[in-house]
UniProtKB/TrEMBL annotation, chain A:
<dbReference type="GO" id="GO:0043571">
    <property type="term" value="P:maintenance of CRISPR repeat elements"/>
</dbReference>
<comment type="subunit">
    <text>Homodimer, forms a heterotetramer with a Cas2 homodimer.</text>
</comment>
<dbReference type="InterPro" id="IPR002729">
    <property type="entry name" value="CRISPR-assoc_Cas1"/>
</dbReference>
<dbReference type="InterPro" id="IPR042206">
    <property type="entry name" value="CRISPR-assoc_Cas1_C"/>
</dbReference>
<protein>
    <recommendedName>
        <fullName>CRISPR-associated endonuclease Cas1</fullName>
        <ecNumber>3.1.-.-</ecNumber>
    </recommendedName>
</protein>
<keyword id="KW-0479">Metal-binding</keyword>
<dbReference type="GO" id="GO:0003677">
    <property type="term" value="F:DNA binding"/>
</dbReference>
<dbReference type="GO" id="GO:0051607">
    <property type="term" value="P:defense response to virus"/>
</dbReference>
<keyword id="KW-0255">Endonuclease</keyword>
<keyword id="KW-0464">Manganese</keyword>
<feature type="binding site">
    <location>
        <position position="157"/>
    </location>
    <ligand>
        <name>Mn(2+)</name>
    </ligand>
</feature>
<comment type="similarity">
    <text>Belongs to the CRISPR-associated endonuclease Cas1 family.</text>
</comment>
<dbReference type="InterPro" id="IPR042211">
    <property type="entry name" value="CRISPR-assoc_Cas1_N"/>
</dbReference>
<keyword id="KW-0238">DNA-binding</keyword>
<dbReference type="GO" id="GO:0004520">
    <property type="term" value="F:DNA endonuclease activity"/>
</dbReference>
<dbReference type="GO" id="GO:0016787">
    <property type="term" value="F:hydrolase activity"/>
</dbReference>
<feature type="binding site">
    <location>
        <position position="222"/>
    </location>
    <ligand>
        <name>Mn(2+)</name>
    </ligand>
</feature>
Length: 330, 156
């Protein structure tokens, strides 16, 4: 069983024999056998060296770096082990052909908005009165079928998210006036949380893509350029509602995150280390949560659903089976 | 490749079209360990022309193939028969093969006869045809699928 390791403290990460050694600033050392490592999140200030990077490459382990404020800085993405020239060519073809690209982009948004709708329905059934918001999203989803341009699809998505975010004040028990999504820098608790959690989902998706032949830079919904592994952004859209947003509601409603979780600094809000730890624990256990997969007839983790999404895209690109995005079925 | 032909033509197609799976299966890990831990005194993994990979060879006459279990014996036999055939085509005569099952304490001798050679040539053409096809072969829906590293890719 491979695990994700989150290094929150400052210190050092190095290779010793076939193990990883994590040394914290207080001198304590922890040995991690390489076979147990899936990926590593570096959230503190950690010294690494090239010997370590080589070792991680050999074992196909990605490092995700976050800065002091908890913002994602980037990933050490080792040399690809699984490459397929023919798949790459076909992936590019699906980007270059407007028709093929729109087909995939639309399916991504249909799945994402379906999962958004499911989140609202969940809280509606628990007495939040979100009928109007659900109706709005239902209608907007129908618009997705009619749009044949990427920017039009994006426009509809914007409207869906707007309606969704408006509902958050009703979902969240705490008194946070959440008006709209603000990123640079986030201006209130929810925006900070969203930025942090979205970057976690993004990096998880990136790790899963790495273990397939898909090229992470060629995307369909997002434009494949913007200094990001944009295929990650595409696939993350589908999983943000279930992995990220549902968790945010739960964290806030259980009061595991509240005003005390943030440090007020220069007009924006930053998560305290202790709060980040709470979120990471919750996020990690969410990824490990398992459900019975209807098609595969076996238990799979939420995290593995992302891998399966990659497989479905591969099959679509190879012309074997049309892509049908993940929609929450439970 | 020859082995896959007998086990699953779809796996063969995926494999040859560069859709390879990471081994996250325990069976593969066990297989790797058996390979690592057995016959340590022999020089192992002799790759020839980037085409065949012989587990190890003794007396320059006998090639050995290490297997975890004999559940796929037919495929394994054809795999080593192909090795013998390949070597013969490259001028190495009088080669025999042994399938080693260290865990079962069992070994099986394999030789190549004239009929086999003809059969192999037919299969090679067949393989070429399969992998060149734009469409991959359909799933075999067998009980071995559940243990295959391609299971999720095939059935999702």
């Amino acid at each position: 069983m491979k695990n994700t390791y989150y290094l929150l403290k400052n210190g050092e990460l190095r290779r010793k024999d076939n193990n990883l050694i994590v040394k914290a600033c207080d001198g304590s050392e922890k040995v991690i056998p390489i076979e147990t490592v899936k990926e590593i999140y570096i959230m503190g200030e950690v010294n690494v060296n090239s010997k370590l990077m080589t070792f991680l490459s050999q074992n196909s382990i990605i490092l995700h770096f976050f800065n002091y404020y908890g913002f994602y800085s980037g990933s050490y993405y080792p040399k690809e082990k699984l490459v397929s020239g023919s798949l790459l060519v076909k992936q590019v073809e699906h980007y270059r052909s407007k028709e093929k690209r729109v087909e995939l982009a639309r399916e991504v948004l249909k799945s994402a908005s379906y999962n958004i709708k499911r989140n609202l329905r969940y809280y509606n059934e628990r007495g939040r009165d979100l009928e109007d918001e659900i109706k709005t999203i239902k209608n907007l989803r129908k618009h997705l079928d009619r749009q044949n341009e990427i920017n039009e699809l994006m426009g509809v998505e914007g409207n869906i998210r707007e309606g969704y975010y408006r509902a958050w004040n009703k979902i969240v028990n705490q008194d946070i006036n959440f008006e709209k999504r603000v990123k640079h820098p986030p201006d209130n608790m929810i925006n900070s949380l969203l930025s942090y959690v979205n970057s976690l989902v993004y990096t998880t998706v990136l790790s899963e893509i790495y273990h397939t032949q898909l090229n992470p830079t060629i995307s369909f919904l997002h434009e494949p350029s913007t200094k990001r592994f944009s295929l990650s952004l595409d696939i993350a859209e589908i999983f943000k509602p279930i992995l990220g947003e549902r968790m945010i509601f739960s964290l806030l409603n259980k009061n595991m995150i509240n005003e005390d979780s943030f440090e007020k600094e220069m007009n924006s809000l930053y998560l305290k280390d202790s709060a980040r730890k709470v979120i990471l624990q919750k996020y990690d256990s969410r990824l490990k949560q398992r459900i019975r997969h209807k098609v595969l007839k076996k238990n799979v983790s939420y995290r593995y659903l992302i891998r399966l999404e990659c497989y479905k895209i591969i099959k679509h690109i190879l012309g074997e089976k049309n892509y049908e995005g993940f929609k929450i079925w439970w | 490749m020859f082995y896959y032909y007998f086990i699953c033509k779809r796996k063969l197609w995926y494999f040859r079209n560069e859709i390879q799976m990471e081994s996250n299966s325990e069976a593969v890990e066990i297989g790797k360990l058996i390979d690592e831990k057995s016959y340590k005194r022999d020089r192992k993994h002799i790759m020839i022309n980037e085409t065949i990979n012989i587990d190890f060879m003794r007396n320059r006459k006998v090639i050995h193939e290490i297997k975890k279990s004999d559940s796929m014996e037919e495929a394994s036999i054809w795999q080593v028969k192909y090795y013998i055939y390949y070597l013969k085509k490259h001028g190495v005569e009088d080669i025999k093969a042994i399938l080693d099952y260290p865990k079962l304490k069992k070994r099986v001798d394999v030789e190549l006869n004239k009929d086999d050679e003809e059969e192999i040539e037919k299969i090679l053409l067949e393989i070429e045809k399969i992998v060149r096809d734009q469409k991959m072969p359909s799933i075999i829906d067998s009980k071995i699928c559940k243990k295959c590293s391609y299971y999720e890719l095939c059935y999702i």
